[in-house]
Amino acid sequence: MSIQLFKHLFVYPWDIVDNGIEEALLSIKKLGISSIGIATFYHKAKIFTPNNKRRAVYYNKSSSAYFKPDKKKYRDLECKTSQYFDNYLKCNNSDMMSDIISVAISNELNVNSWVVVLHNSYLASQFPNFAVTNLYSDVYTHALCPSNPEVTDYAISLLIDIAENYKFKNLFIESLDYSGFLHGDHHEMIGIKDTETLEKILGLCFCERCKQKAIHLGIDVKKLISGLKHSLDCLRMLKAVDFSRISFLIDRYIDMRSMQIESIYKKVYTHLKSKNISTGLFPIIWLMGGSNPAFYGVNVGRLSPFTDGFIAAYPDCANTVVDFVQKARSLVGYDKKLIGGVRLLAPQVECLDDVRRYIGEYQKSGIGDIIFYNYGLSPYPFLEEITKY
């Protein structure tokens, strides 16, 4: 007997508003969707919008909010609203996110907040001393480093602000981590084939706060940096890289980062419970391409007591779903809800039969909750196909 299916959908607010809030949400409801995860804070992006009736391309020109922040909650780092949100407020004299939530609830759609937390090019550019910084002191202006107390305060304030002031069922939390070297900047160009090794070398943050924390814990930071620089020299010359002499230092450094991410989740979770706010916390754990979330400070076991479930993102193709679920379950266990993700766009989905296979493989693996990415990017025939299941 097939496991019961609950379908969820990531959405962008500009697609909902551009298509008419009522009309857009009704069309989503007709797809058999039980809940949406709406981008409430989103990173800078240029997006082709195949299902938008008003535009072909949307520019999110800066990392920005699509809700009305409570400015009293923020101290050193501001929560900047998008121009799109500001224009809606000016033209309609109302809060766009509240309007979307109200219409969704009236149409029996649960609404979740999809929050991009520290992948913030605006703040990282404005405050480079709070940004992720590699072993050569090169600043990565696409992301903030959570070892900085100012960044931690910002992340906690952002999540609590959204949970306290809007009727979201859950927070789907993205990039609450130590961002790495890859997947960050405009026109990112890399000529080395072994990007996995490159990420291991250049994906660790060595900002002043990270180094101070490590030294306080007794980690030999100078030896770690020296070993990583030697490894990069080998990679540059296409020689074999051997991390064995510094692997224990890398492990301790990663563990230090996971403790910091755990503390942020613990503070948010404890605060919401103390206020009797039922909004759930669902970290999005990035497993695509064999990625290891622990490297980025996301130790799923440590986060589990302070979360309500996890979203696993994303299988590389339908053929890998079973193995993908096994890996996700090995991290999450069986006592927490696991939502399986599907990138409903190329190259992960290239034909209608791929949609059927993803759903079937997830159900075969015991996963009944599937979230599709996303209404704003997926060709509509793929969206229509999910109505059959």
Which SSEs are present, and which pair or pack?
Elements: E1 6-11, H1 13-18, H2 21-29, E2 33-42, E3 45-48, E4 57-60, E5 64-65, H3 83-92, H4 96-106, E6 110-116, H5 121-126, E7 131-133, E8 139-144, H6 149-165, E9 170-174, H7 195-202, H8 208-216, H9 221-236, H10 247-274, E10 280-286, H11 300-303, E11 309-313, H12 321-332, E12 337-343, H13 352-364, E13 369-373, H14 380-385
Keywords:
389 residues; alpha/beta; TIM Barrel; two-stranded antiparallel ribbon; 40% helix; globular
Give an overview in words:
The chain has 14 helices and 13 strands. It has an eight-stranded parallel barrel with strand order 1-2-6-9-10-11-12-13, surrounded by four helices. The protein has a two-stranded antiparallel ribbon with strand order 3-4. By secondary structure, the chain is α/β, with parallel strands linked by helices. The protein has a single domain (6-388), classed as TIM Barrel (Alpha-Beta Barrel), CATH 3.20.20.80. The radius of gyration is 21 Å and the shape is globular. 40% of the residues lie in helices and 18% in strands. α6 runs parallel beside α10 and α7 (195-202) runs antiparallel to α9.
